[in-house]
Predict the structure of Glycosyltransferase family 15 protein.
Amino acid sequence: MMTPMRYVVLVLGLIISLHFILSFSHEDYGKATSISHLTDKIINNGPNPPYKTPVSDEYYHPSNDTVAHGRRANAAIVVLARNGDINGVMFSMKQMEDRFNRKFRYPYVFLNEEPFSDQFKEQITALTDAKVEFGLIPHDDWYQPPWIDEARASAARAEMVKNSVIYGGSVPYRNMCRFNSGFFYRHELLKPYKYYWRMEPDVRFFCDLDYDPFLVMQDGNKVYGFTVSLYEYEATIPTLWDTVKEFIHENPGLVSPDNAMAFLSDNGGDSYNRCHFWSNFEIGDLDLWRGEAYSKFFDFLDQKGGFYYERWGDAPVHSIGAALFARKEQIHFFNDIGYRHEPFQHCPQGEAHKRGRCWCDPGQNFDYEGYSCLNRYDRMF
Ligand SMILES: Nc1nc2c(ncn2[C@@H]2O[C@H](COP(=O)(O)OP(=O)(O)OP(=O)(O)O)[C@@H](O)[C@H]2O)c(=O)[nH]1
Ligand SMILES: [Mg+2]
């Protein structure tokens, strides 16, 4: 007869033997259960995504350097704006220059569906020593295509206005979302570039950025960078996910292995959890959008008409594209970039706050607030 104590010892012995066999035979199991991984989880209170390792010192230029010499990326800062956005654009750009670009001198590309006024051009050019170009958006890349059923589109807008959906009644807003989703990276002025940083009017940059984020993207083979992620309004995208699933079903070969589906869906792709990267800030690789997978994806979405029959935003469209067509390691959280677009902000914490001489209150940080999706990003690693 075995005593209960002997049973316990026997079962423990079996578990320990199985653990050792699995540790040696399955590398992933070994890594996941290693002491260092487990202590990391306890100390850092969760998973360990790549951004928790600070950017290496070799990327930093001393903060008193006036010009960053050395390697440069093929990159531009991109701004979509109207003439009437001039004050907000200057507000953002002055900070972009002071916190970062005064030293790095990356060129700016401004885009508009109407010609920029002389006043706009003069005031903007005066803010920087970098090259500034002003481009006109081709008519068909901006305006609602003729094959959209206007009766259906206007009925959808009226319904959204009735339901108080933000920008629900606006056609220009929809043109903007469609242009940012599928056309900006094809503009003539952006053709020479590989990387871009999207900047909007009226945003804040809180910290000095003494390293070149484009080189961090390039060297790490990253394709999409963000600072804030959150949930999309369901009312703006009722059929978007079904359309995405249809596309995946028809094009399984275009989806990346090791993608970031877990950021978008909590059930393996069955439904969309509405998480997206907030696209008013993006540092990205234009070739992600120009590639076969995203090009086909955008055309597929576009011909469904959801940019006009609903109000599909460029944020969910880009986020779904990046998450499906890149590997999850290629999506980068720019932890060092303190950033605010009303009403949310990312404020770096601890050492990163100190190093960037950030002027945001570390207590005001969206990262792990209830409406943020950063925990879903973290859990992928
Ligand atoms: N040229 C042009 N640019 C536009 C138009 N509408 C919006 N934009 C730009 O597109 C970007 C996004 O527009 P926003 O109005 O900031 O949209 P949003 O960020 O969703 O909403 P806000 O909370 O109002 O900032 C900004 O860079 C705007 O300047 C437009 O009709 N024409
Ligand atoms: Mg905005």
